[in-house]
Amino acid sequence: MSQSWTEGSPRGRLLLTFCTPNLEKKGTYPRTVIPCPNSYQDTLEASRQVFAKQIKLAVASTSGAVPDADPDLTLKCAITRPNGMTSWCEFQVIDWKEVIRPDGDEIGVFIQGSSDLPYEPETTGSKEEEIEKSKFLHLVCGGSAKTILAPATLQDLKLLCDSLFDLGYKTSIEISTHVRHPRTGKIILVELHEASYSKFIAIQKDPILLNVCGVIAVGKYY
Questions:
Q1: Furthest-apart CA pair in the chain: how many Å?
Q2: What is the pLDDT of residues 142-158, one digit of tens each?
């Protein structure tokens, strides 16, 4: 249960979260727990001490230089709304003891001018989400076949095929696929090139069937 501001009672603890745009990209904000200060101003001073390194890095990343003086900070309180979403909310400095609950609240520390950040920083997606968005390639080389996640580049794919199908003694590797000719309607075999690889993979449906061929000086090895 959250403590109240009663005379002689323990101050309790306060969770401080430092929110800045450059740290937002890393998927988490720095957090620390301190003894709950008695005022808004005391909390600002405590924030400057515990987040001194992060504050300098945040300002330097924006201005390109280490600041001569500490930037102005502002505080917000994390409030969970009826819909379950949590937001950073402003409050009056003089209302510190009426609004903040020791052992119950989280205070967001913002550099002035960047106080519109979300409660939780947005991320580029979890590993599970990245895998879910990836395309599967079904590779066929002679009598062998392998199914893999599509590498980022055609060169990466060729290096992987070199290992998967033991093509190291071949002078080069060709990756091709069957497509329908736009005019004749016939199915033809077309070699993939680096410039078109990413776009081709993006528009295809799983699994994408590709032919792998190791090329030697005379003829081809299938």
A1: 92
A2: 888 888 888 888 888 88
Average pLDDT over residues 203-220: 72
Q: Which token pair is 155?
A: 């060169």
Nearest to residue 39, comparing CAs of 77, 76, 91, 93?
Answer: 93
Whether pTM > 0.70 for this model: the answer is no
Cα 76 from chain centroid (whole Å): 25
